[in-house]
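hey so u asked for the seq, here:
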Amino acid sequence: MKFPFSKSLNRILFSVLTIGLISCSTSKTLVNVKCVYTFKNVVIEEDQQKLENAIVSVIGSEFKKSGSDSNPTYSFVAKSAAQIDEIHDNIKDLKSGKNKDNIQSKIFNNTSDQGSAFYMEKPEYHVTYGSIGLEAKVEVIVNFKITPGSKLWYKPQGQMEVDITDKVDKKGNVKFATKITKNQEFILGRTSFKGAERYIQVNIFTGEVLEINQNQYK
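ran it, structure tokens below
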């Protein structure tokens, strides 16, 4: 059965928002594209069906329709960019005049000298890319254990001494991260309790701990 294409389509505005790719070239790698197509002022029932067929003939019945019959919005997932191209071509080929009503994958027009009844009012492209994160950091963790109530200082090799007594817990334990510098080999520690003092040297590569004297504490 053939039926006339309504002249009212000459007044139809067509807008499309596609979350994905809208292009004249297809992509084999772009798949499962979320799409939203909005039509405006489609007042004739036959015209509404033709527009719906332009989409359904490509993506099948897996779509969500919202809005009114004259201002419908179709939401669906296109399997590829090629399907988006095909839908665009189908809509672009809708012309005023007579059309075949059995739409398969393309809408054919009997009056090829006439222009399309649609123009694209608001084409948009939006895509979100994820990224593989890779972060790293190196920390040197220093552990000291001293007699509870003692004072404690530490110093990276060749640097200033730092009082860390306030970091020591009630059992005499302290644990903290420190930075190392180029060519540094040791971390030094000093503790004092009731006038007595002790000095140690920690190899940051081997973990070896040696007791040293005051002259070596530098």
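The chain is about 10% helix and 35% strand. The CA atoms of residues 132 and 173 lie 39 Å apart.
lmk if thats what u needed
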